[in-house]
Amino acid sequence: LSSMNLSGTLSPGIGGLVNLRYFDLSYNEITGDIPKAIGNCSRLQCFYLNNNQLSGEIPAELGKLSFLKRLNICNNQISGSLPEEFGRLSSLVELVAYTNKLTGPLPRSIRNLKNLKTIRAGQNQISGSIPTEISGCQSLKLLGLAQNKIGGELPKELGMLGNLTELILWENQISGLLPKELGNCTNLETLA
């Protein structure tokens, strides 16, 4: 149902779609927040809500979606922080959340996301430092956090991400030197 000029809010009734695997409402005019009932869609693998007018916070119940591989919520007005429950998304491969109003630090539970290849969360207000637990994301290829409020020094644990090809952190408040361990990222092609 992408690009259908749909408007209104997402009904909590969505929780009744327990066999839903693919859900795409991108490029519409959907408002309101993501209903907590989404946690009942336990078979969901792809969830696309990008390019709408969604607001509110990401519900912790999203963490119940253990089969979720792709989550795209970019270009909305979603606020709050990424919940710790994100660490339960053990199948997650791609997280796209840029151009929202996300705040707070990245959750330390990120260490559990062994299959995660892409994080694109630029143009938000994410703060704190990049957690050392990022080292758990052994499949990570792209870490895009440009235009946020991330501070502190880059953790040496970034050097443990042997598959990393793109590290994009410009326009933040990061201090200190590049950790020498970053030299272990021999697949790195873009550092910005």
UniProtKB/TrEMBL annotation:
**Coiled-coil segments:** none
Task: Specify where it is mainly localized.
Answer: membrane
**Where does the source fall among the domains of life?**
Eukaryota
Keyword Cytoplasm among record annotations: no
Per the record, its GO cellular-component terms are: plasma membrane
Q: Which Gene3D superfamilies match?
A: Ribonuclease Inhibitor (3.80.10.10)
Q: Which UniProt keywords apply?
A: Cell membrane, Leucine-rich repeat, Membrane, Repeat, Signal
Q: Where in the cell is it found?
A: Cell membrane
Q: What is this protein called?
A: Uncharacterized protein
Q: Which source organism does the UniProt entry give?
A: Populus monticola
